[in-house]
Amino acid sequence: MARIISLVNFFFLVTLFAPLIAKRCPLKYKQRTLQLINNELKGDSVVIFIHGTVIPLISPLNYRTTQQRGLIPFIHCARRDQIIAETLTKTSPQEYQTHQFFVYGWCGVLSFAERRKAAEDLYKHLRSYKGSITIIGHSHGASVALYLAQIALEDKNYQFSIDRLILFAPPVQSVTAHHIKAPIFKKVFSFYSSADLGQVADPQGLYDDTKKISINKAYFLFSQRTFAPSQNLIQVRVLLNMQSPGHSDFLIPRFLSRLPATISFLESSAALTRKKDFILNIPRPHEKVHLVKKKHLSGSYIPRTVRTCRCAKKYHCFS
Questions:
Q1: Strand 277-282 to strand 233-240: parallel, antiparallel, or no bridges (unpaired)?
Q2: Distance between CA atoms of 189 and 199, rounded to whole angstroms?
Q3: In this structure, what DSSP letter does residue 16 have?
Q4: 217-272: per-residue pLDDT in tens?
Q5: Side by side, which strands form the sheet with 35-37?
Q6: Among the listed residues 122, 184, 121, the one whose alpha carbon sits nearest the alpha carbon of residue 150
Q7: Which of 34, 121, 42, 48 minimizes the C-alpha distance to 84?
Q8: pLDDT digits (tens, 9 = 90+) for 169-198
Q9: Contacts (Cβ under 8 Å, ≥6 apart) of 287
């Protein structure tokens, strides 16, 4: 038990002080031969997935594009990333097609400057594209996407727009959070979990960038889970079969296979209730996605013994 506590404390300290040593020892993989991929966007629509921070030993379980930079088409994506595209295509072929799917590879360093640079490079690919753009950002991949609003404004490109911005577990930080209201983002869907420690682990208060760039001088030490309300934003606390998912669970087929139907459900629910913040349960396959009333949840932790949505009487679920 003592060893476990020591390991937990060690990883906490690494997370806490990583920003302070980022300039001297960036948090990234050993340098290998990088494959730079530049592709022109064609067709009426594209879907771009942006991965999050690359952490040694951990990120290989989630991302396979750490040695690729730029827009990577489906045929050149690693198998793990192809599964994301195939899952979405199988579920909703009208909205998602593999030949329209790209992964945007960036260095993944835990740094505001690197995320800003990644967004600048991505903007170069997108600024002249006239079709519909859907961006899916996981973790700090969402932060990269949010920087697009600032870069487009600096470029005075008022015609540039992102039709749908879909965020999985975005670390909400004062430097980028206000970009969510930018007019370039027509629709924004932000999915988060109350049990996701990875989303809030980045200590924004320890960065010099937070003190210099942040519009709101009163900010939290750690990243937050939710954005301030906005007309273009729908925020969703996700439950998978009445259990709060972890940081990487947003990339598994179990969640992705229900994403198109979930977004359609949220759009109709938002129109009916005029509510922009939801708790949503995604049950087992072949069962309907439904909303859950917050006041009937016993805290943010859902017991593992709760397996199905037949607990509707206890948790007062409604569809």
A1: parallel
A2: 16
A3: H
A4: 667 788 999 999 999 999 999 999 888 999 999 999 999 999 999 999 888 876 55
A5: 35-37, 68-73, 101-105, 45-50, 132-138, 162-168, 185-192, 233-240, 277-282, 290-292, 317-318
A6: 184
A7: 48
A8: 999 998 899 999 999 999 999 999 999 999
A9: 308, 309
pTM to 2 decimals? Answer: 0.81
Task: Tell the burial category of 142 from Cβ atoms under 10 Å away from its Cβ (0-12, 13-18, 19+).
Answer: buried
Which residue is associated with the tokens 């961006």? 135
d(CA 111, CA 115) in angstroms, rounded, equals 6
Tokens of 248: 């990487």
Domain spans, the chain: 2-318
CB within 8 Å of 154: residues ≥ 6 apart: none
Task: State in Å, rounded, how far the first CA of the chain is from the last one.
Answer: 44
Beta bridge pairs of residue 42: none
